[in-house]
Amino acid sequence: MSYFPYRYGQAYLAYIGGKYGDVAVANLFKLSGRVGVDSAFVYTLGITADSLSTEWIDTIKEIYLPLTADRDSMEQAGRKVLASDIDSGTMNIAPVVSPDGQYVAYLSEKDLFEINLFIADANTGKSFAV
Fold first, then answer.
1. In this structure, are residues 120 and 126 in contact, taking their beta carbons and an 8 Å threshold?
2. Which pTM does this prediction carry?
């Protein structure tokens, strides 16, 4: 069974809509099919896609990093269960812990060509596709 849980572009498009207006998002989609994605960014927003991505990342860090100042470090909060150096992919998203705390269900590109649902043992990190 395969899943394609793409949902992270919405934050990027919300940023574009907030900065350039919602009509800019619609224009990006329309123009991308005619002139290509890279040119659509320049024509619609007056900025390259790479420059906009850098600007967006900087804005997100400026807004959200201060909110983490008084929080525990990752090492204090817990231990890594899903990581590419253990037994999972590089993009592991939407984790859900089982009610008994023994397993973690997550979506990953670990199988290379598609995103699948995996179950990992919360103690060892060893996982298998569902």
1. yes
2. 0.59
d(CA 81, CA 75): 12
- Per-residue confidence in pLDDT tens, the chain, 130 aa: 454 555 668 888 999 999 999 999 999 999 999 999 999 999 999 999 999 999 999 999 999 999 988 888 878 877 777 766 666 667 778 888 999 999 999 888 877 677 888 898 888 878 888 8
Nearest to 23 by CA among 13, 33, 8: 13
Q: Which is it for strands 103-108 and 92-97: parallel, antiparallel or unpaired?
A: antiparallel
